Amino acid sequence: MNSELSRQKVEISLDGVCKVFGKRGRQVTVLQDITFDVHQNEFVSLLGPRGSGKSTLLRIMADLLQPSSGQILMEKEHPREVRLRRKFGIVLQQPSLFEWRTVQENVELPLEVLGQNRSDYRHTVDQLLETVGLTKFKDYYPWQLSVGMQQRVAIARALTLDPPILFMDEPFSALDVFTKDKLQVELLAIKTKTKKTIVFVSHSVSEAVFLSDRIIVLTAHPGRIHSIHCVDLGEERTAQIRESEPFQTLSADIQTSIYQGQAPKTE
Ligand SMILES: Nc1ncnc2c1ncn2[C@@H]1O[C@H](COP(=O)(O)OP(=O)(O)OP(=O)(O)O)[C@@H](O)[C@H]1O
């Protein structure tokens, strides 16, 4: 970990998290003894072979699933309390927008649910739309937007209540390569501007290296931590960094870790 991050406060702490699915006799251990910390303003990606439990782990962190054992604390609080206080936002692979609401109405929904007055939050929503580059499209409906634009709306909506933490599960995997590259650059800019702590599930080594401060590689069946990789590429990252030697070397190391973490084939 770079020295600046190690000085930051621990925002999320996982201690011996295990997850077993199924009933007695047919149990499958999906996650085993997952222990790591995420620091404030850190971008941590979870990578690993298919079925290594990346999404399950993210869902446990976001209180959408419960661990079978072990615990997660977010500044000494259980994820349930943190979720109820709306201290994290979630962005999933599918944007899941409300088709009958405009872009602006989708983004302001969390504030509306809290019963706040539109006049009080207008400025916040305008700024968010500006941050994700959708000001001109605020009166459009989701079906009038490309998937990349819809995902930007989902990101803005996750940021509406200004949560310190953002959980993202393969948010760009359905996008074409150009839109994906563009949104990755935009996400880094958002992270720098808003100082969020981000936990991100990805299938793409290059995406994870481009975005992250640290990458956690999980093994499959069961999902254990194989290795943790620090990404020392600096804060300012442009698309060209992908061509650099440190980027390529780190990507190759991580790819090797993922291969090593694949479950042995059974005959
Ligand atoms: N509700 C469930 N009940 C039983 N098994 C489940 C359940 N949810 C997930 N699993 C199993 O847990 C394992 C891990 O799934 P998960 O989706 O977390 O992995 P992943 O690493 O995100 O996978 P992928 O890379 O394919 O997206 C898989 O074998 C999956 O079948």
TrEMBL record:
Alphabetical list of SUPFAM superfamilies matching this protein: P-loop containing nucleoside triphosphate hydrolases
Membrane-spanning segments: none
Entry keyword annotation includes Nucleotide-binding: yes
Top-rank taxon: Bacteria
This protein's UniProt keywords: ATP-binding, Nucleotide-binding, Transport
InterPro entries in the cross-refs: AAA+_ATPase (IPR003593), ABC_transporter-like_ATP-bd (IPR003439), ABC_transporter-like_CS (IPR017871), ABC_transporter_ATP-bind (IPR050166), P-loop_NTPase (IPR027417)
Pfam families associated with the record: ABC_tran (PF00005)
Domain ABC transporter: from-to ranges: 12-245
GO molecular function, one term: ATP binding
This protein's record includes keyword Transport: yes
Listed name of the protein: ATP-binding cassette domain-containing protein
